[in-house]
Design brief:
The structure is a homodimer. Chain A contains 16 helices and 16 strands. The first copy, chain A, is of the alpha/beta class. The relative contact order of chain A is 0.17. In chain A, helix 3 runs parallel beside helix 4. In chain A, 40% of the residues lie in helices and 21% in strands. In chain A, the strands form 3 sheets. Chain A has an 8-stranded parallel beta sheet with strand order 6-7-8-9-10-11-12-13, sandwiched between helices. In chain A, strands 3-2-1-4 form a 4-stranded mixed beta sheet, with no helix packed on it. A 4-stranded antiparallel beta sheet of chain A has the order 5-14-15-16, with no helix packed on it. Chains A and B meet through helix 3, helix 10, helix 12, helix 15 and helix 16 of A and helix 3, helix 10, helix 12, helix 15 and helix 16 of B.
Chain lengths: 440, 440
């Protein structure tokens, strides 16, 4: 029993009745292991009687739990701390000085806050890169959702720093694997081609292969990264990563705004997944949008992520789906690019594929990661097309119920323990700012 | 007493205590006329005792009711009916055939739905252009919020059609003025330079001046409108409108994506207000963003609007503030353009100025159009900067209480009569689609 779910009956069979699934009124039966045993229009006779818990989903649309493939969850503590500044000033005067004072306890409460926000807006799995990740894992374990954790590996071509990062990465992976919690996964996280040496990247690639874990990296967010890489390595960033062995079906590359056609094709051949982060890219004015059509044509698995709260500033994947669908249409000047069904797939099935988890669909045999959206919300009326309403009209505020791995985490918009987490996160954040601004 | 507010005590003095106003904990006293009598940190002794109704706003941020300066409210009925299509196909195959079957009753229920959505997301005034506007006015009157109505005047250079439009406009203005409801205003609404003849535009300009009412028009949404205008009139659209007398301090021009520098300067000299509609512009791929800095430099009053629900697809002004602040940064490649405080001003004070209504500020002597936002929402925590959280992080779902003209329209997220309106709007919309698709 996890802290956040004290209020609800867990590990019990559940019967969700009258949910709208893929445009049809259906029932869903969840067994005691949290697995979807059956979905259909006429399963009531067989399963309703055996269920220990009945969830009435009349007037609700059921979708798979959303998957956020690029976050720095504990940066929720920095939400609104510094906005509308030039990128370099923002980093050097605001973000880095604050991060220098971060503790494991800060990351714990920042991640608790992030999980709360994700549950409230229908996200049941995320892919996280930050520091003090054992504390982040403790927070996610308690929250009841899923996450993949990597230590942000940065060596700046310094061999001593590299050894520290290797040790930290090994320690985290050992820690997560030994916990044996199916909701928690480890990854290796070389920060970016411009912050990690060739040796560091090669080690990360080998370690990812050896441990059979994801490799999570930032790729070509800004134009400057591309020119810097060409200057230093005489190759564009994707080619450089490939030469270090970093591109494989285990790789998740975030941002990818400045990929050229050849790089898109390379990512497709290597079966890489990418994470589109439209809000962050717009707010930080990166000046180009992810080349969606070229990546799609190359067969790349395209997913969706919010990035951290200091550059977005929230974790609402509904809002992010809309930003993605609209930014692609606007930037590439095509009113039919990235239609609603593809945006929803990015945020569900594609994300699950990238993370190597069996969620992202509501189907027999898959874990019950299910979100119920209230149709009695003005932005969901009229219901001509539920996918269109989900992507273009409603926000995370329309989510009524969230189930992850068969456990109810939010019901009727109520999350047990929410108030306490909000207060602790607020205090933690204010204390962090105080410490960072105290006279040295 | 209006239909939507049956559940709450109206026309009574109110004392809002402990709200966070402009970063400081303050109380607000509202008199029996719905006017803010006092705002301050120490007004409790003088006013709390006289108030007939106490509103506890501890843990709430108070902002002025939001002002949506460009809508086609009843198009809420078409939400999700047709997305991800080419513009011309979308209009000719989907939107126009449906609109050909619209009735006054449809517009009434569509506007009821729109008002519900606006109240829920903190909007207390909007500027509407559509058809059957007497029915729209009836819906707004009942909802308790404010609106300015114009009949969408389209003559396509046809003198007979022009006379019909003139009659419809005169009739609507007479109707709204004779109702004498201070929440309802009339305007004249020449649709756009490419749909209205010079004679039609000149009549609208004179009528606006004579009646002392706003002139609401679409301007330079697409590049094609600009080249079409140059071809037909040998002038860019703003210059053409000016030659018809259509640019004055009473004018609200929506979209304005394709204005050049000279047009921005002209709008500034004529004291025109513009409405930025970022979501709609992105979704319809208009290929340029409103020239915010040039308009600001020219002294133009810049406001914010959602456009109609078939091209957005919602009426959430919180989401629209974020789209505006992010689109400007992204398109004009400046990470400091349109900061949060300017986005909030566009959605409040600037909008009120454009509509000529005394709202948009929480100050003594102004009508009590006040929105309370719940700070105990994950996306509002931590509260380093309330304006940043309002613009970049929270959505309309964080709104707890809405007061318009001193009347409580939503309290604790509850709006009396909501369920009935949702059902009726859904039925109305489905019947409209049936009629439009029935064999002729």
């Amino acid at each position: 029993m996890t802290e956040n779910t004290d209020g609800y009956e867990q590990n019990r069979t559940k019967f969700i009745q009258n949910a709208q699934v893929n445009g049809e009124k259906q029932d869903i039966y969840i067994d005691e292991c949290g697995t979807i045993r059956s979905v259909g229009t006429d399963i009531s006779k067989e399963f309703r009687g055996q269920a220990e818990c009945i969830i009435d989903a009349s007037g609700m649309v059921a979708i798979p739990g959303l998957v956020n493939t690029h976050t720095h969850a504990a940066m929720s503590l920095l939400r609104g701390y510094a906005d509308d500044m030039h990128l370099q000033e923002w980093l050097s005067e605001k973000i880095w000085p604050l991060e220098a004072h971060l503790t494991g306890e800060d990351v714990y409460w920042g991640t608790k806050l992030a999980c709360l926000e994700m549950i409230r807006s229908g996200t049941t799995a995320f892919n996280d890169m930050y520091f003090f990740m054992k504390d982040a894992a403790r927070a996610v374990d308690e929250s009841g959702i899923r996450a993949t954790f990597c230590h942000g590996f940065i060596d700046f071509d310094n061999p001593v720093k590299r050894e520290t990062e290797i040790a930290a990465t090994k320690d985290l992976v050992r820690h997560i694997k030994s916990a044996g919690n199916p909701r928690l996964q480890a990854a290796v996280g070389p920060h970016a081609p411009y912050t990690v040496s060739r040796e560091g990247l090669e080690w990360c690639a080998e370690f990812s292969e050896h441990e059979e874990i994801m490799l999570h990296i930032h790729l070509s967010e800004t134009e400057g990264e591309v020119s810097g890489c060409i200057e230093k390595h005489n190759m564009r960033p994707a080619a450089f990563l490939d030469s270090c062995g970093c591109l494989s079906e285990r790789t998740l590359a975030a941002h990818c705004c400045w990929l050229d056609a050849e790089e898109c094709s390379l990512l497709g051949r290597r079966r890489v997944s990418v994470s589109h982060n439209p809000s962050s890219n717009m707010k930080l004015a990166v000046n180009r949008a992810l080349p969606y059509q070229a990546l799609k044509d190359a067969g790349v698995n395209i997913t969706l992520g919010t990035d951290g709260c200091s550059s977005n500033n929230n974790l609402d994947m509904f809002e992010e789906m809309k930003f993605a669908a609209l930014l692609q249409k606007f930037y590439w000047n095509s009113d039919t690019l990235l239609p609603a069904d593809e945006a929803l797939a990015m945020a569900t099935a594609n994300g699950a594929t990238a993370l190597g988890i069996p969620t992202g669909v509501i189907q027999e045999g898959h874990p019950a990661d299910i979100v119920l959206i209230d149709m009695a919300t003005p932005s969901m009326v009229p219901m001509h097309n539920s996918v269109s309403n989900i992507v273009y009209s409603c926000s995370g505020g329309a989510v009524d119920t969230v189930i992850c791995d068969g456990s109810i985490l939010m019901s009727d918009k109520f999350i047990p323990g929410e108030k306490d987490i909000l207060e602790k996160a607020q205090e933690t954040s204010f204390r962090l700012v105080e410490r960072a601004n105290a006279p040295q």
